[in-house]
Amino acid sequence: QVQLAESGGGLVQAGGSLTLSCAVSGSTLRIIASGWYRQTPGSQRELVAIIRYGGSTNYADDVMGRFTIFKDNAKNMMYLQMNNLKPEDTAVYYCHMKEHFPSGDDYWGQGTQVTVSS
Q1: Which pLDDT band holds residue 49 (cuts at 50, 70, 90)?
Q2: At CB < 8 A and 24+ separation, what contacts does 37-40 make?
Q3: Average pLDDT of 64-80?
Q4: Sign of the dihedral defined by the CA atoms of residues 106, 47, 41, 94, in that order
Q5: What integer pLDDT is reported at residue 103 of this predicted model?
Q6: What is 70-85 written as a DSSP string?
Q7: Rounded distance, CA 21 to CA 112, Å?
Q8: Which of 36, 39, 76, 81 has its CA 20 to 30 A from that of 55?
Q9: Strands (DSSP E) along the chain, which ranges?
């Protein structure tokens, strides 16, 4: 079992920066991928950034070059550095981890609100 807890959301003006944190507890030995998702009311949760077991990363096209995902395994933390924020980045952001085969279990945090004002 893995428990995730996000923090760091808030209100920021367009062009500003925020760093989201995800505190990880429990056993992560079977985790194959970790990431950040976001969701707005009435929309599906969408992938923002992912970091795989080997360290490779991928980003959604609309955050490429502005957001950076990284982990500090020694501190059991995952982060999302968000720069040059835009009003369309406004959403609830969730951290996520997935276990490898055979369980394939998904773990989610409770979410943290990010609001970008124009």
Answers
A1: very high
A2: 37/93, 37/94, 37/95, 37/96, 38/89, 38/91, 38/92, 38/93, 38/94, 38/114, 39/91, 39/92, 39/94, 39/111, 40/90, 40/91, 40/92
A3: 96
A4: positive
A5: 86
A6: EEEGGGTEEEEEE-S-
A7: 10
A8: 39
A9: 2-7, 10-13, 18-26, 31-39, 46-52, 57-59, 67-72, 77-82, 91-99, 106-108, 112-117
Residue listed under structure tokens 């933390």: 77
The chain-wide mean pLDDT, for the chain, equals 96
Tokens of 102: 């055979």
Q: Provide the b/e sequence for 2-22 (b: ≥16 CB within 10 Å).
A: bebebeebeebeeeeebebbb
Residue with structure tokens 């599906």?
44
pLDDT of res. 95: 98
Instruction: Give the separation between CA 101 and CA 9, rounded to whole angstroms.
Output: 32
